[in-house]
Amino acid sequence: MSWEEFRGFREEDPGGVREELSPQSHKPWPFRPRVTVSYAQTLDGRLATAGGSSQWISAGESLRFTHELRAAHDAILVGAGTACRDDPKLTVRHAAGADPLRVVVDSGLRIPPDAAVLSGEAAPGTLLAVTGKAPEERRRRVRDLGAEVVEVAEDRSGRIELSALLAELGRRGVGSVMVEGGAEIITCLLAERLADRLVVCVAPKILGSGIEAVGELGVRSLDHSLELADVAVTRCGVDLLLDGRLVYPETGPGGHENGPRDASREDARGV
User: Fold this and answer.
1) Where are the alpha helices (DSSP H) in 1-127?
2) Which of 166, 160, 84 is nearest to 117 (CA)?
3) Which tens digits make up the pLDDT trace of 53-98?
4) Burial 107-116 (b: 16+ CB within 10 A, else e)
């Protein structure tokens, strides 16, 4: 099964992805790119074992689908932990299509210079998002390799402000971003209501203890849970692919529910 079959994307229409993932793409730049969060998990919701092993949770058919999904986005984003631990290439290899811009969220710039996203000819297509804490020596080192280093504002926890990073990508003409992890990035995007679509591969495996796909979101009542609309569930080999549009609860003053907010239909904002 292909991405085209799964979501009806038309490869011959160069604006298809932006129209599908970013209905507000007609707005003048900058705007926040539409964000698709995609990951593979076990039946018990684990991204990896307690020791961090995650290759491979999903089957080969799902891996091909993931690469088709990569090709259908302008950029692919991961956190520094994922880049250091899994050392992904973040390229399109098992499907037709061009490589997206590779974005690594790395506040302190701890990614090693021999990482796959910086090795060979990969560096010129890689953007490293850092904060002011990233040492200048490390910045020069990765720039010499051909990668781009962009300093982004910090949030209150000293991490990269993801809304500011998305705004910067929007200013660069990026209309759609695929996020592949890790758990901290996924959780932050959901908590800050910055993700528009969720694509999850569920593999028929159980790990027990391990790394959770999604962390604390502050949900204390089912009425305030995040939901998916326009859900499609498709079999891909032995795995199940679940895709849907994220709908967030809208809580008013005093914690009262004012009704759901549809992320994909909200005006794209400059964040």
Assistant:
1) 3-7, 16-21, 60-71, 80-85
2) 84
3) 666 767 667 778 888 999 999 999 999 988 888 888 898 887 888 8
4) bebebeeebb
Q: What is the largest CA-CA distance in the chain?
A: 54
Residue with tokens 């520094």: 80
Question: Which residues pair with residue 154 across a beta bridge?
Answer: 160
Paired sense of beta strands 148-151 and 126-130, if any: parallel
Q: Which residues contact 151 (CB under 8 A, 6 or more apart)?
A: 130, 131, 132, 134
Q: How many CB atoms lie within 10 A of CB 43?
A: 12
Contact 242, 199 (CB under 8 A): yes
Tell me the torsion sign for CA atoms 163, 86, 115, 121: negative
Q: What is the mean pLDDT of the chain?
A: 80
